[in-house]
Write a structure and sequence with these properties.
421 residues, Rhopdopsin 7-helix transmembrane proteins, 2 domains, 3-stranded antiparallel sheet, two-stranded antiparallel sheet, 14 helices, 7 strands, 57% helix, elongated, Rhodopsin_dom_fungi, transmembrane helix, SAT4-like, Rhodopsin domain-containing protein, membrane
């Protein structure tokens, strides 16, 4: 925006600022009192994105601290990204307060100036937030698929190349939006006669394109490693599907890029910038959720049975209306199991329980039964069973990253994921 304001008096400048920020279409009159806006849609989108992203981060934090009991670099980065998402909600909310989502001809120029300031702050915070989210995902790739460089050097080098290219680009993005104009206040007061500004149109288009390409790269990067996993086809497809949820982040990024181009090419900046911002909010929230997904199966395996029992307490029958009166078969008690009578021939076919023989411990979780295999040391004089878990190596050696989707690296470089929920 360029305005010959050097010769304007203070009264003329005030009248200019009270006027519309852009010319209206033919036959349309400016409406400053009650213009059409996107306030309701922005508030709904902002709330949903914050709620779902926060739930994902809180479940991930609980799982890593209390179930896995491990905290890694990618956890720090996603927490920082989540906090910046919350921080970005403040200028995002201010944009609609200062005329965002209103057509240029229904917005006063002085309000548009405040909107430009909010947009500049949001753009800076966005770049840092998106980089931290992508960094968290890429660090998980390194921990899951490349615990050592020798295991998969190609994946190691490619992931590092993506990390550093994103770092350099988003660093330049932050520097560009901070130093867009000299003096800096000319960014939101473009009518000032002194100073100069760089053209942001080409950079915005390049930034949107790079962001979309980067999201697609992060999506397809682990796919070759996932396809080579030694597991049944069904589990392999489930695992690929979990990682492929990043496709939704790619969709939001592409749509954001599309509206970035509309902001550059169309004069209705105050309206199109908010539509672009809606997809920006969705992109950030989707990225945070995708980053947390590898941990969430372990959380649901832990919390699912407890939630089931909590909701099924009210539906349980009282002692007077138990299974005997309703005709339903009661579930056998684990503490006093119903052991069927075996014939001598069947008893002869059962091997003797010797020291370090294997037995199974049964857990009933809702309607599901799980078996855990243990080593059993039997004290022959007292016939008492001492159960102890089978010895394993450290979690960091067995499970790279200790995620709910756990990867085990054998000496031959084979990798598999536990996709059971």
């Amino acid at each position: 925006m360029s305005m010959p304001v050097a010769q304007l008096s203070s009264q003329q400048l005030e009248a200019l600022l009270d006027g519309p920020a852009g010319p209206p279409p033919p036959g349309v009159r400016p409406n400053f009192d009650d213009p059409a806006n996107l306030n309701g849609l922005v508030n709904l989108t902002l709330t949903l994105c914050l709620v779902f992203a926060s739930l994902a981060v809180l479940m991930r934090t609980y799982t890593k601290l209390f179930l896995i009991r491990s905290w890694d670099y990618e956890d720090y980065t996603i927490i920082l990204g989540w906090l910046l998402q919350i921080g970005e909600a403040v200028p995002s909310r201010m944009t609609i307060k200062n005329g965002g989502g209103v057509h240029m001809w229904d917005l006063q120029l002085k309000m548009f100036s405040r909107l430009l300031y909010d947009i500049n702050v949001t753009s800076i915070v966005y770049s840092v937030t998106v980089f931290l989210i992508k960094l968290s995902i890429l660090l998980q790739y390194l921990r899951i698929f490349v615990p050592t460089r020798k295991g998969n050097m190609a994946m190691f080098l490619t992931t590092h190349a993506v990390i550093w290219s994103n770092f350099l680009f988003y660093l330049l993005d932050v520097v560009f939006f901070i130093g867009l104009c000299n003096p800096r206040r000319k960014i939101w007061q473009p009518w000032l006669p002194e100073g100069h500004c760089f053209s942001s149109d080409a950079w915005n288009m390049a930034s949107g394109t790079f962001n979309a390409v980067s999201d697609v790269t992060v999506l397809i990067l682990p796919m070759p490693c996932l396809w080579r996993l030694q597991m049944p086809l069904k589990k392999k497809l489930i695992t690929i599907g979990i990682f492929a949820t990043g496709f939704f982040a790619c969709v939001t990024s592409v749509l954001r890029t599309y509206y970035t181009w509309k902001v550059v090419r169309e004069p209705d900046i105050s309206y199109n910038i908010i539509v672009m911002g809606l997809w920006t909010l969705a992109e950030i929230a989707t990225g945070i959720i995708v980053s947390c997904l590898p941990v969430l199966p372990k959380f649901f395996r832990h919390a699912g049975p407890k939630v089931y029992r909590a909701f099924s307490v009210g539906s349980k029958s009282s002692p007077s209306t138990g299974s005997a009166s309703t005709g339903r078969q009661a579930r056998p008690s684990l503490t006093s199991p119903m052991i069927p009578t075996a014939t001598p021939r069947q008893m002869a076919s059962v091997p003797d329980m010797t020291n370090n023989s294997r037995i199974h411990k049964v857990h009933v979780k809702g309607d599901y039964t799980e078996l855990e295999e243990y080593n059993a040391t039997i004290s022959e004089p007292k016939t008492m069973h001492q159960l102890r878990p089978e010895p394993t190596s450290s979690n960091r050696d067995v499970e790279s990253g200790r995620y709910g989707i756990s990867v085990q690296n054998a000496s031959h470089g084979e990798t598999w994921l536990d996709t059971s929920f």
